[in-house]
Amino acid sequence: MYVNRFDGLPPQSPSMARRILQGLLIASLFPLAAGIGIGAEAVRGAVVQARLARAVDEAALAGGRVMHDSQRDGHVRRFFEQAFPAGFLGARTAPLEIDADMEQGILSVHAQATVEATFLRLIGVHDMTVEAEALVRRPSRSGGEPKLKRAAS
Questions:
Q1: What is the pLDDT of residues 72-126, one digit of tens each?
Q2: Which of 39, 56, 68, 148 has the maximum number of C-beta atoms within 10 A of its C-beta?
Q3: Count of Cβ atoms closer than 10 Å to residue 130 Cβ
Q4: How far is CA 65 from CA 25, 60, 69, 116, 147, in A?
Q5: DSSP states of the chain as a string?
Q6: Quick check: pTM over 0.85?
């Protein structure tokens, strides 16, 4: 003999169970879509950071070759702009920072890019900032090897 635990309640129709499962399926698609979107943004940020690092490296090496030239900063900027085109994957770059210590023969190039977020806005993050820096050491004109100063601890 079959005993129903829910005596007195009408049996559920298959269409009601199907509707519940469809609702659960649709509800589970939202977090899945959000996860895929956030993952895509993370990949986009990593690609921008990698390209920015490569562009800064190329620019620093180009600047190191013409370190004692009066047009050095122009060469560095030109190499950077060719390696990291404006608007690459929607990124906005801050002005390139170029510092040189001629006595030590050290050229430093620093760049920063901001990538506007799309899916990350759902959790309150409006943009991602990535940075890259490269140092090039060249012998000074006097011919000696550059000596790096140690930071005081």
A1: 899 999 999 999 998 888 899 999 999 988 888 889 999 999 998 887 777 777 8
A2: 56
A3: 19
A4: 60, 9, 9, 35, 19
A5: ----TTTTSPPPPHHHHHHHHHHHHHHHHHHHHHHHHHHHHHHHHHHHHHHHHHHHHHHHHHHHHTTTSTTHHHHHHHHHHHHS-TTGGGEEEPPPEEEEETTTTEEEEEEEEEEE-SGGGGGT--EEEEEEEEEEE---TTSPPP-PPPPP-
A6: no
